[in-house]
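Problem: given the chain below (221 residues), write out its structure.
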Amino acid sequence: MILSNRYNFLYVHIAKTGGTSVRAALKSLQWKDPYYIAQFICSRLSHLTGHRIAAKLPRHAKIIAAQEMLPHEFFDGLFKFAFVRNPWDLQVSSYHHLKRERPHLLEGHESFEDFTRWKLDPQRPYQYHLDTAITVQTDYLIDLHGKVLTDYLGRYERLQDDFDVICKRIGVPTPQLPHKRQATDRSKDYRRYYSDDLAALVGRYFARDIDVLGYRFDPES
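Solution.
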């Protein structure tokens, strides 16, 4: 999550939606923020204390955390945005990320289908750090009553175009997004990873994302 006082925005970073590129592009704005030094000091203090002082908004914090921590008028006046992604594509991306960087978390479930069924199994003991992609994306965007709090939702599928819209809205130049963490070990077509049954399982699990965000398994059909 990135909060800018100077440019009056709040960026909600949902994992595996192009956020690393967005954060890199917005990083230069942080140096111009009048509260940057205070934010940096609080961030370092939070890290040094094992995050026991609740002095920062975590990288992948949900928007409700900012709503609760910030003054209401200030929060309401922020331009709040996030990027979202097709849930079926997101699962493929997250699987390859884990396979590449934390393969021990697969725990014998090496294939995409086996791992996805295992991680979404309601009988499996809960492990948040197993995979951030098990969290419904809309959970990051809503308040306690289910109302979406963001003012703009960009799409991973049109990342640069929507980022340009955001930059114009907050009044900054529109840089070309850097290419961060692009996987080279996966097929570009996420649909190749799914059997009919697995596609249906993911559809049920992420039903609210599919309904609220308007995604489908086969957008070309």
